Amino acid sequence: MIKLNKFVSIPSTVKSIIDDIILYSVKVTEKMYILNNNIKNHHTWWCAMYGLNIACHNNKIKMIDGNNCYYPSINNLTESHYIAHYSCDKIYNKRQIPNVDISLFPNNAFYNSAKKYLSETKF
């Protein structure tokens, strides 16, 4: 496992396909932009998830292990998690961005990273 910073670790599986994830994420974003008559749309933020799915499929990696994902309010964040499923989070509701109450965030690496992002990003 490699460390990107003090918050993010990448298991060796992701490390082995990271170039493909980036490649396909960019391709999906470009394709969505073209299909949308060169207008950015709100779905392009999904490009990394699409890229991850394509890279896993092409490298015959099954994405069925729920133990790889942190589900806020459902399980506890561990070093083995390399994705966070924040769409099911009642505290960090993406529909409320930028009006998310970050004072409600628990003290863990996921929420601390989200708090930093929301505090430093101009919306």
TrEMBL record:
This is Uncharacterized protein. It comes from viral metagenome.
